[in-house]
Structures are given as structure tokens and as C-alpha cells.
Write a structure and sequence with these properties.
heterodimer, A: about 325 residues, Rossmann fold, 2 domains, 5-stranded mixed sheet, B: about 375 residues, 6-stranded parallel sheet, about 10% strand, globular
Chain lengths: ~325, ~375
């Protein structure tokens, strides 16, 4: 076991994947000598050289489009998009090409491309540096969308993403980059395809009275809320989805059948979001177990505000507690 | 015709005039020296056969057998000329109008029609022909070609020391695609990575209804100057010129000389697609002017003058064209609707819960009818 931050755990996962497979290469802006603006690729240029850690021209569509071409020849490019709000020039390549090539070619062309995107807010950044656009991609078939919440998951999930034959959008909660946690770097890595942990939700905390569903940066908020609940005599179960697509609703349904109550927390705006999808699934599959409506705690349907306002914009422990109070009313 | 810009004849390399005269060029003549009469005759035949196929496909669309057709009419020389400069190991990234290149790469044109009948999105195995699938989003594939070329370079297929083994990539796109961000990014990525790649722009003068002057103030070849890339304009209706400039650029790419840009100045003699109506935006006079510059007739005139086109060869070619057209007609009309479950296949390489759930639901739904009808 080692104690690592999320950023250094992903770094270690990238390194391990690059050592394991010479076809893995990194592409992005400032990922070489700078080590990325968040230092997630720190030291990799020195150890793997510029052919495998490529500083690219400043063009996101170009990064993803050329990664597609390289993956057609068997390479496994891991692209870094510098910030969430800068992914949109690549939106076309991701949604019309990367997501659909396997389908278009009737399974003959696989594109094992990973796109790493530091996302979500809470770091006092300027405009376009704090967004949560994961749902925009989740609506496109052909993409796997995952997001780790802990250093251990960061280490393992990046390796699973790289080994996946499908394109993976790997959303990294940037506010959690400096959070430390125990990471088992010696755990044997098993290429286990769709059964990879990255596709399956985990129970981050067991509880009996209410289910809090979260992913990425909101898992910490959910856990903090659960702790406050405990002091108030409410036992909250926290589910970390890990994946937005495929969305593992079975873990949520199982939990809600036990608790009868469900609150979904995410930083992305509430309308048309993951919370809406979960609320629909829970009402389809656990309707008669419900003691209260499923509630959503997400960002408002406004553009991301100036950073001095972001703590009122993002789901906070108090806002999640407010939702829990409402679902706990008999 | 404008004296400058994308609709001018300025700087165009030409080795065969529209009246069928062979002329010399200080740089490019030597790249066409290997084109003997037998090869030129073959090129003429290929253009004739693909044109017959193209006309048949248009008819099939008019008769309701295809949802849409994208004619290559008038662009046969640009495609056959450049296509002849390719080796089997080279890779082609087409847009969606490169039927003649597809033919040269051995793609079954009858299968190609399946895309346009709505039977599938792909229709051939790219690896079997080193000919990637058609890409309908304009310019997107220029980046795939660039990445692919960068990967070929890494794989040691470029400047290997064995010039017979070296390979490169050619990417086809149109005048409209040059306005896309992706195409411009592709030029930049290819240039700074010294990718073994030839950008082959068929300036057919029209992006649906918009003339090339809506895309550019300068010739399209000049765009490449901005990224420091060698470039050339060629008469795209001159199959010999198209061959020569492509051969030169591909040879440079294969030995590590980096990317080039070719603008083949041609004319889309037909509509953009069968859904288009060129009478709304271009003149009869314009069409007649370009009909006189038909890529096939000029080569025919040249070969006839040399006595290199026998009546037998002609009739054999006519028969080949007829047979191909008849074959694709019969086959595409006989092609049945794909089984419904195929829509769930290949969304992901690994099983994905959401798709699996949709498939299972649909199968259950279908079965419910059978059960209701008494186990048919």
C-alpha cells in the first residue's frame, strides 16, 4: 500500500499501463515537459520519451481525430483535454467518429482511445474550467464514460480504461486531485473487459435508511453528508456510480429496495441529468419500495457562475441534508 | 473564369490538354514517363467502367432502389490518375465520392451501393483494400488519415531503406472540406509531425450549391503554404497530370519527405447528390464549357490519334461497363432488409448493459407477438 493523491495515483496507473503495453501513448497539450497543467503526466516524458508522450498542437479536435487514426493501427492513445470546457472542439470527433466507428465497420474497427478530462468545479477557476459535461457524451451510444472518486479507483480505473477495446471518456474530478488515499499498487491487474470495476457501482458506505447516489467529485460530499446523518440518527448508504455509461442502476435499485429512499447528487446541472435517469430507473424497478419521491441535488440550470459563487451553485452537504430531510418525512 | 483564386486555371499542371494534346512540364513530365499506351488504355477503360457504374447508380436512385446517390461524374481522371500512383501497401482515406478510387482498390462497387440503399453504414472491409470506410462528416477523416500516417511512420513503413516497401497515406476531400476546422488542423498536425501523407483536394468547384469562391479567396493549394507544405495545382480532368503529381507527392511521403497538398481542379458534372438540383445555381453555359473538358473524351482522343484504342478494346470495355452496371443492379435489387437485431450489434466491442437491455427488451417484445399468435 502507498498513500497517493488522486493525481499521482492516475499518474502511477498511466505509467503501469505504458510499461505493460508499448502501444499505449499519451497525447495532449503541455503534457510533456510541464507534466500537464495538473501534473498528472509528470515525469512520463522523461521516462518514455517524446514518441510516447506527445505534446500536440493546441487543437482538441486534432488531438482526438489523430488519436482515432493512430488507434486504427493498433495504438492505444490516451488523450488529455486540458479542461472540461475545452472539450467541445472535439465534440464532433468524439460523437460522430470515435463513438460510431465500431458500429459503422460492423465491429471490424475498434478504437481503444481514452480521453482524460479534468472536470467539475470547486477550485476557484475562471470560466470554462469547472464544468461537468459528462451527460452530453452519455447520450451518445458507443462511448464509455467513467469517473473515479478515490486514488485507488484512479489507479485501477485508468488502467481498465486503457485496456478497454471501446473508447472511454475518463472524467477526473479536479477538485479531488490532491486528496490522499491508500492505493494498492501491487494488486495484480486483470484485463476483465466489461466486468471491469470501472463499469460497476460500489457501495462507498453502508446504510439502512436512505440511499445517496453520487459519482466523481460528489462522492465526498455524499460521504460527508452521511456522516452528519449518522449524528442525527439517520443511516445513509452511499453509492459511488463510477460509470455514467454504462450506468449501473442495479446497485442503486438494490439499495433503494432496502432503504426506500433515494437522493442523487452530482455537479452537473439537474435537468436531463444522471439524476433524472436514476429517478426514472428507480421508479420503473423499485416503485413499490419507495417511501418518498427520488430527489435530485445538482447544479442549477445556469451557466457555471463566477467562482466566488460556485459554493452556492454546487451541491453542498447542507443541500444534500435538505433533500434527505425531505425524503425522511413520514 | 477568374484570373486568380480557386476558380482560375492559374498555375495548373497539365500534361494532356482538353483537346487531347500531350504537352510537357519541366517538373512533372518525368513522373508520367512510365505511362505507356497499355497503361493509358487501361486508365481510359477504368474511367469508362466507373462512369457507367455511376450512371447506373443514379438511375437506380431515380427508380427508387437507392435512397441517395453521390455521383462521381466528371471526377474520374482525378481519381483514376491519383489512384494509379498508389501501391497496395499505401492507405487511402476517402470522403464519400471516391468511387473510382474504390474500384481501383478492389472494392466491390455492388457492395458499395448497400450504403446508399440503407442496408449498412460500412459495406467493405477497410483492411482488405487499404481503403478506409467512407466518412460523411465533411473533413473529419482528414485527421484520421493524419493519425494513421503518423502511426505508419512509427511502425517503420516510411523511409525504411527499402523504397519498394515504403508506404504512405492519401486523403481525398473536396473544396468545401477545406473550410472545416478539422482539415486545417489536419494540415497542421501532418506538417509538424512530418506525416507521410498526401492531401488530395478535388476542387470540383461546388460544395452543393456554393461555388469554391465561397470557401476561399486563393487557390486551395495555396492554403498549404501557410503550414509550409509543398503543394501543387493540377488539371483534375487530365488523368496523366493527376497521376504525375500524385506519384511525385507519394514518393516524397514514402521516403520521409513529409506531407504534400494537391489541388485537382476539376468539375462536378453531375449534381452533388441525387437530392440536389444544380439548375438552381449554375448555368448551362458553365456545364457546356466543362463538358468540352470531359476527362474521358480527351484521353480517348489522344489514344485514338496514336492508334492505341482498337475497336476490339473499345467493345470489350463497353461490354465490361454494361456487365458491371447490370450486375450491381441485379444484386442491389435482390438485397433484402437486414435482420432487425443487427441494429444492436457492434455498438461496443465489450458488452454494454444499456445496449444489452435494449436488445433483450426488443426480443421479448417481438416474441410477445409470436406467442399471441399461437406460437408461430
Amino acid at each position: 500500500m502507498e498513500t497517493l493523491t488522486l493525481a499521482s495515483a492516475i499518474n502511477a496507473g498511466l505509467r503501469t499501463a505504458m510499461e505493460r503495453d508499448p502501444k499505449v501513448l499519451l497525447m495532449g497539450e503541455d503534457i510533456g515537459s510541464l507534466g500537464g497543467v495538473f501534473r498528472v503526466t509528470d515525469g512520463l516524458l522523461k521516462d518514455f520519451g517524446p514518441d510516447r508522450v506527445m505534446d500536440t498542437p493546441l487543437a482538441e479536435s486534432g488531438i482526438v481525430g489523430t488519436a482515432i487514426g493512430m488507434s486504427m493501427r493498433g495504438y492505444r492513445p490516451v488523450c488529455e483535454i486540458q479542461f472540461d470546457g475545452f472539450v467541445f472542439p472535439a465534440f464532433d470527433q468524439i460523437t460522430t467518429q470515435l463513438a460510431k466507428m465500431h458500429y459503422r465497420s460492423q465491429g471490424r474497427i475498434t478504437l481503444p482511445v481514452v480521453i482524460r478530462i479534468p472536470y467539475a468545479g470547486g477550485i476557484g477557476a475562471v470560466e470554462h474550467h469547472s464544468e461537468s459535461p459528462e451527460v452530453l457524451f452519455a447520450h451518445t451510444a458507443g462511448l464509455r464514460i467513467v469517473t473515479p472518486a478515490t486514488p485507488q479507483d484512479g489507479y485501477l480505473m485508468i488502467q481498465q480504461a486503457i485496456s478497454s477495446p471501446d473508447p472511454v471518456l475518463f472524467f477526473e474530478p479536479k477538485a479531488r486531485y490532491w486528496d490522499k488515499g491508500e492505493v494498492d499498487v501491487d494488486a495484480p491487474f486483470v484485463v476483465d473487459g466489461a466486468s471491469a470495476a470501472m463499469s460497476h457501482a460500489r457501495v462507498a458506505r453502508h446504510g439502512e435508511d436512505v440511499t445517496i447516489v453520487a459519482y466523481g467529485p460528489s462522492v465526498r460530499v455524499a460521504l460527508q453528508t452521511a456522516q452528519v446523518c449518522e449524528s442525527e440518527g439517520i443511516s445513509a448508504e452511499v453509492i459511488d456510480l463510477r460509470a455514467v455509461s454504462p450506468l449501473d442502476t442495479s446497485a442503486v435499485v438494490r439499495s433503494v429496495k432496502k432503504t426506500g429512499r433515494c437522493v442523487v447528487v452530482h455537479e452537473a446541472p439537474t435537468p436531463f441529468g444522471v439524476g433524472a435517469e436514476i429517478a426514472a430507473k428507480v421508479s420503473e424497478e423499485a416503485f413499490f419500495a419507495l417511501e418518498a419521491p427520488v430527489l435530485r441535488v445538482g447544479a442549477f440550470h445556469t451557466p457555471y457562475p463566477a467562482s466566488k459563487l460556485e459554493h452556492d451553485y454546487l451541491p453542498s452537504v447542507d443541500r444534500v441534508l435538505d433533500a434527505i430531510d425531505r425524503v425522511m418525512v413520514d | 473564369m477568374d484570373a486568380h483564386g480557386p476558380l482560375s486555371d492559374e498555375g495548373v499542371v497539365r500534361l494532356l490538354t482538353h483537346t487531347g494534346e500531350r504537352i510537357e512540364h519541366p517538373v512533372y513530365s518525368r513522373y508520367a514517363e512510365d505511362l505507356d499506351d497499355a497503361t493509358l488504355r487501361q486508365m481510359w477503360r477504368e474511367m469508362v467502367v466507373v462512369r457507367a457504374f455511376d450512371r447506373e447508380a443514379t438511375s437506380l436512385q431515380r427508380q427508387g432502389e437507392l435512397g441517395l446517390w453521390v455521383p462521381s461524374l466528371g471526377q474520374e481522371a482525378a481519381q483514376v490518375g491519383s489512384g494509379h500512383a498508389l501501391r497496395p501497401a499505401d492507405w487511402v482515406f476517402p470522403s464519400y465520392r471516391e468511387h473510382a478510387v474504390a474500384y481501383l482498390r478492389g472494392v466491390d462497387l455492388g457492395n458499395l451501393l448497400r450504403i446508399f440503399r440503407g442496408l449498412e453504414h460500412g459495406a467493405w472491409v477497410a483492411d482488405e483494400h487499404n481503403f478506409h470506410l467512407y466518412t460523411l462528416v465533411i473533413g473529419s477523416h482528414t485527421l484520421h488519415a493524419t493519425g494513421y500516417a503518423m502511426a505508419m511512420d512509427r511502425d517503420g513503413l516510411v523511409a525504411s531503406g527499402d523504397t519498394a516497401r515504403d508506404a504512405a497515406v492519401i486523403c481525398y476531400f473536396g473544396d468545401g472540406a477545406t473550410s472545416q476546422g478539422d482539415t486545417n488542423e489536419a494540415l497542421i498536425f501532418a506538417a509538424v509531425n512530418n506525416a507521410p501523407l498526401v492531401f488530395f483536394c478535388q476542387n470540383n468547384q461546388w460544395a452543393i450549391s456554393e461555388p469554391a469562391t465561397r470557401q476561399s479567396k486563393v487557390s486551395f493549394a495555396q492554403r498549404a503554404d501557410g503550414v509550409g507544405m509543398p503543394n501543387v495545382r493540377v488539371d483534375g480532368n487530365d488523368v496523366i497530370g493527376a497521376y504525375a503529381v500524385t506519384r511525385e507527392a507519394m514518393e516524397r511521403a514514402r521516403v520521409g519527405g513529409g506531407p504534400s497538398f494537391i489541388e485537382a481542379f476539376t468539375y462536378r458534372m453531375g449534381a452533388h447528390t441525387t437530392s440536389d438540383d444544380p439548375t438552381r445555381y449554375r448555368t448551362k453555359a458553365d456545364e457546356e464549357f466543362w463538358a468540352e473538358r470531359d476527362p474521358i473524351s480527351r484521353l480517348e482522343t489522344y489514344l485514338e490519334r496514336r492508334g492505341a484504342l482498337s475497336a476490339e478494346y473499345r467493345s470489350e470495355t463497353t461490354e465490361m461497363a454494361r456487365a458491371l452496371a447490370a450486375d450491381v443492379r441485379v444484386r442491389i435489387k435482390a438485397a433484402g432488409k437486414p435482420p432487425t437485431h443487427e441494429m444492436f450489434d457492434h455498438v461496443f466491442a465489450d458488452p454494454h448493459a444499456t445496449v444489452d437491455a435494449d436488445r433483450a427488451w426488443f426480443e421479448h417484445f417481438e416474441r410477445s407477438f409470436i406467442d399471441a399468435e399461437g406460437g408461430l
